[in-house]
Amino acid sequence: MRKVFHNGRELRAGWRLLLFCALVVAIAFAARMGLERLHLADYPGLHPVDLIVGDTLLLLIALIATSIMARFEHRTLVVYGIPRLRELFGRKFWAGVVWGLLMPSAVILLIFLGGGYCVHGLNVTGTELLKFASLWLFANLLIGLSEEILFRGYFMYTLADGLGFWAATILQAIGFGALHYYTKPNERWEDWVAVTLLTIFITLALRRTGSLAFSIGMHFAFDFSFIYVFSGMNGGLFAVGRLLNAEFPGSIRLTGGLLGPEASWFTFVVTLAAIGLLHFTYRQAKWPAPTQS
Predict the structure, then answer these.
(1) Cα–Cα distance, 148 to 213 (Å, whole number)
(2) How far lies 183's CA from each of 29, 69, 108, 178, 191, in Å?
(3) Does pLDDT of 292 surpass 60?
(4) How large is the angle between the packed helices 91-113 and 265-281, nearest 10 degrees?
């Protein structure tokens, strides 16, 4: 019976993952109850303040649950790919930012060449431009931090411990795509596929760089580019205070339609090319490192 729960070194990966998920659900429930008591203001549409509140909460939940499991397993957060604070915004983060800017830029260029993108000037100016640029920078940074630490931190480490890296990567990528598909409005299969491919890219970056710093930077810059800079739709909505008065005429295959350029078929092409380029740029696997503790 002991072998069902223990592998000779520690509690089996499946049980540890179950404990982590239970912690996340319990902490999230308690946090949600606390937020409801605060009676925070509602912001209409795709508003950065809504995302800041939600993703700050998600980040805290992820860090608390991961810290509890790290103490239980006698490991440091670094083992799970979470960079130390002094390394978080270092070279790897900014390398990820570059990739996260270039990939959406390539997609938008291809959409533009196909006649699916035109800009009619700035959407906001003056102090409103500065305000929303700052809010969207912060909101997207929190998205990168919260989602990468929650889904590619302890969760990915433990899943890979149980299944092996590549099986865990494929399962997690499909699952992350499914999470978008079933929880966001106006979803189509294109967004599921795009998110799955992007997750494979991000997880491969974790394996080859040894830290989530690159993935956090890439995720932050990628979302910021599509939602704010190029001002595409997301879930059927334009971002409140987006930079440009942009228009996306053409078929949904070209532009992504209500889901925005992330669901464009060009995103498939660019992401597959980026996965290949990443593979040849970062050749050595550095994560997970079982000797760390």
Answers:
(1) 9
(2) 18, 27, 25, 8, 12
(3) no
(4) 140
Task: Please report where in the chains the tokens 């411990």 appear, as a residue.
Answer: 161
Interior angle at CA 140, CA 258 and CA 53, nearest 5: 100
Q: Which two tokens stand for residue 261?
A: 């350029």
At 282, give phi and psi (nearest 5°): -115, 100
Instruction: Classify 231 as helix, strand or coil.
Output: coil
In the numeric block, which tokens belong to residue 195?
């998110």
**Residue corresponding to tokens 């830029």:** 105
**Each residue of 89-101: pLDDT tens digit?**
999 999 999 999 9
CA distance 94 to 193: 26
- For helices 212-224 and 189-209, what crossing angle results, to 10°? 150
Q: Which tokens hold the place of 187?
A: 């979803």
The Cα 237–Cα 150 span in angstroms is: 25
* The three-state (H, E, C) secondary structure of 240-281, written as one string: CCCCEEEECCCCHHHHCHHHCHHHCHHHHHHHHHHHHHHHHH
What are the φ/ψ torsions at residue 8 (nearest 5 degrees)?
100, -25
Tell me: the pLDDT tens digits for 165-178?
Answer: 999 999 999 999 99
- Looking at 114-183, list the stretches that DSSP marks H as alpha helix, in order from N- to C-terminal side: 126-149, 155-163, 165-183
Give CA–CA dist 244/251, Å, rounded: 21
Nearest in space to 28 (alpha carbons), one of 51, 71, 69, 59: 59
Whole-angstrom distance, CA of residue 292 vs CA of residue 78:
8
Contact, 113 vs 40, CB < 8 A? no
Q: What pTM was estimated for this model as a whole?
A: 0.94
CA distance 288 to 291: 9
